[in-house]
Structures are given as C-alpha cells and as structure tokens.
Specification:
Length: 101
C-alpha cells in the first residue's frame, strides 16, 4: 500500500501510474475510515493489476480539496491519470472490487 505524503508523490505514484490506482482519502480520527482500513489492507495483499494508495486529508487538505473530497472515507479510482470513479462512505469488499474491476 502506498502512503501518499506529498503532492509530488501523488503525481508520481497515482497520476503517472501504469496500473489503475484506488485512492483512499481518510483521517485517523474517522470511525468509518478505521472500519474500511482492514478491507483495503486485505485487497492490497491480493492486488493484481491495480495499486492502492492512502491520502490523509488532515496532512494534505489541498489534495482533498482539489478532488472535491467533502466526506470521508472517499475512494477515488484513477486510470491513466484521471479520476474515473468515486465512492463516498463505508463500502463492502465487493463494492471496492467492483470499483477497481
């Protein structure tokens, strides 16, 4: 799992990635975010053909604002440098797989 620390890292690891990237916008204090974390960790272990990244909205508020993240957790799917799908709130494993498939 990729932990995004800077805008530059986001550009390199998400926008320029050769594979689709599932990006979790979260905060450490967010209950639903904590509930989603183990699902993302499991998917990361099984990931074939895609990557998973996490962005802490408290550390990178400009990035969250740029992608109009108003509620967390928000999952964005990036393909070829563009956001192609969005999911807001706690979702099931099946829904996460559906987003990235």
């Amino acid at each position: 799992m990729i932990i995004i620390q800077t805008q530059e890292q986001f550009d390199l690891e998400v926008l320029k990635a050769e594979k689709p990237v599932m990006v979790d916008f979260y905060a450490d204090w967010c209950g639903p975010c904590k509930a989603l974390a183990p699902l993302l960790s499991d998917l990361d272990q099984e990931a074939e053909g895609y990557l998973i990244a996490k962005v802490n909205v408290d550390n990178l508020p400009e990035l969250a604002q740029e992608y109009r993240v108003a509620s967390i957790p928000t999952i964005l799917i990036f393909r070829d440098g563009a956001c192609t799908q969005r999911s807001v709130g706690l979702v099931s494993r099946e829904e996460l797989i559906g987003l990235i498939s």
